[in-house]
Recover the amino acids of this structure.
């Protein structure tokens, strides 16, 4: 599959620009990293090749960090883990305490998780690792097919908060697989869509993830995408799987729903997905919330 080439990016990499590849454990960043390593070998790019994982802490699938590390080892890349000074779950708690009148969870309209726990910490790493006289290309596995907002993204754009013109540090975002289809992503990883579906069906039947599975184990379980184990942008399918395989995190997030009165997603309460995973105390508190409507603020309506 062809990458989305840009003459500025090509020239910079040919001259030794560093290539920082954001990896989450998801299929898109995996496919991108594999394709970029092949391009690096083909064109002889000599700059540093870094796989960078922004670790969100307890909100992550437990396997994500090791999966990203294994990918870096496989590609012979440097591996860097960056973190906020507290994890995203703590950030949600702090937001609830500071703004009890506002939803504590991130959302499509308020993606503070991406802004503060991913982009900002990667910017900080770049500023420290490349203080001056360097061009850095930040590759991200965003695809146009994922959403209308991502379709409008410029595949090559300056990354202003990491750049410093006075220090001759120039940083650019690059979306090398922006035009790829879902089938192309999985083909890069090593599967057709039909093969993936077969693996998922077998895993559901046996309960065992194939030991040689080439992608994040959540995909073998049936996930459509991988980010947080329970992501505010996830489909109902992925939330069901994430809750079933991360029950402690599920209960902690339901606690925040109960305490704040706001649902995890607009119109979707985590509490309703797997009530059998909740504690007796949680079920009692939820029952109290489901009293007649006149005793409950409008935003607390559960369905």
């Amino acid at each position: 599959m062809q990458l989305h080439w840009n003459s500025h990016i090509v020239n910079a990499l040919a001259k030794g620009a560093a290539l920082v590849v954001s990896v989450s454990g998801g299929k898109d960043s995996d496919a991108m990293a594999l394709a970029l390593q092949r391009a690096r070998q083909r064109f002889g790019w000599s700059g540093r090749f870094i796989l960078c994982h922004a670790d969100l802490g307890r909100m992550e699938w437990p396997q994500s960090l090791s999966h990203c590390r294994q990918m870096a080892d496989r590609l012979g890349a440097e591996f860097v883990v960056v973190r906020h000074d507290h994890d995203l779950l703590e950030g949600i708690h702090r937001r609830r305490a500071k703004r009890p009148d506002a939803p504590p969870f991130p959302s499509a309209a308020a993606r503070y998780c991406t802004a503060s726990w991913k982009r900002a910490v990667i910017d900080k790493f770049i500023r420290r690792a490349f203080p001056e006289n360097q061009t850095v290309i930040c590759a991200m596995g965003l695809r146009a097919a994922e959403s209308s907002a991502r379709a409008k993204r410029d595949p090559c754009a300056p990354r202003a908060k990491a750049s410093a013109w006075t220090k001759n540090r120039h940083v650019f975002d690059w979306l090398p697989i922006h035009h790829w289809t879902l089938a192309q992503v999985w083909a890069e990883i090593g599967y057709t869509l039909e093969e993936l579906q077969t693996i998922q069906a077998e895993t559901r039947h046996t309960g065992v993830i194939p030991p040689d599975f080439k992608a994040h184990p959540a995909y073998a379980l049936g996930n459509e995408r991988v980010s947080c184990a329970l992501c505010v942008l996830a489909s109902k399918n992925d939330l069901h799987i994430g809750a079933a395989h991360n029950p402690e995190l599920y209960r902690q997030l339901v606690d925040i729903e109960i305490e704040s009165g706001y649902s995890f997603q607009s119109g979707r309460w985590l509490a309703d997905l797997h009530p059998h995973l909740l504690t007796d105390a949680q079920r009692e508190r939820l029952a109290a919330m489901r009293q007649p409507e006149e005793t409950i603020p409008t935003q607390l309506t559960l369905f």
Remarks:
- The radius of gyration is 21 Å.
- Strands lie at 18-22, 49-54, 78-82, 134-139, 156-158, 169-174.
